[in-house]
């Protein structure tokens, strides 16, 4: 098992903290190219998500698109070539985005060093049947371009991005294709993947494993207690600290509900209290997997170094160290993944161009003394643009 799997999957979990709940569903993709790959950091990798679950993965070290959940094997029944064709297309996508990155570096007069070129796009189907779509490009963790599907125009973040904005705004047919993908095709794939998941996961209930760990704070004599809930499904869970049976908010802190690799979820919440009041507090949990609500008592801390709950923080820090060279990626995706918000053309929107071709460029034209190309339709790949400058 290669080392690079662990940090990238940890990154995926970090990116997904705070994602939307069951009232809406989303399908989105993230593409990353780096200028200086290293061990643990492929030059190109992609991740696809259904809601907050990683479902597909590809990187330039494996050169193979793979499912990350068992139910994605359902796609083989409808299209036996799905994974093979997807791998070929992503190989072509890598070359496109590598060229983009080289040109972007020249535009910013950056000849060397570690730089990243990212794109994230997708769609949402909300509980009231409304839909949303978004797509953005980012350079070194900062927004570069966004597409507004309502005005069919691009938003640029700085003068360097304005060059590309003028090129892309001039291509109305391409912008219309983007809009169609986000509002129609992406939603169709979203519904299809939801149907695959439903076949395997319903009816499914996994009981949360609940533990409480504690630590004495030497400097002020207070105690910190962390209640951790792990391995539960479905996602919806009610967890809180109570004092004498009543919900207690003072001194509490809640982590983000996040997915595990097996499709279950984990969550944590902490509280700081006076040791003399320890017996009044409980970690209260309600979930479909429990026959009745659970109230877990707080134990006396055994030592100042026994706070197992802080392992959560340690894991996050370790993950960030492992993927520190792509910290900008985390900033960019975290900023934009929580859902597309309609806004002005200058800084919000979504992107989606013609489907990327497996071989060769087409529809190329001279723009700003450079060649700007888009690709012909191929029914598999997400929309990616080539030679943006």
Automatic annotation (TrEMBL):
Q: Name one GO biological process term.
A: immune response
Q: Source organism's superkingdom?
A: Eukaryota
UniProt topology in membrane: Single-pass type I membrane protein
Q: Cite the Pfam families for this sequence.
A: C1-set, MHC_I
UniProt entry keywords in alphabetical sequence = Disulfide bond, Glycoprotein, Immunity, Membrane, MHC I, Signal, Transmembrane, Transmembrane helix
Q: Which PANTHER family match?
A: MAJOR HISTOCOMPATIBILITY COMPLEX CLASS I-RELATED GENE PROTEIN, MHC CLASS I-RELATED
What protein name does the entry list? Ig-like domain-containing protein
Q: Which organism is it from?
A: Naja naja (Indian cobra)
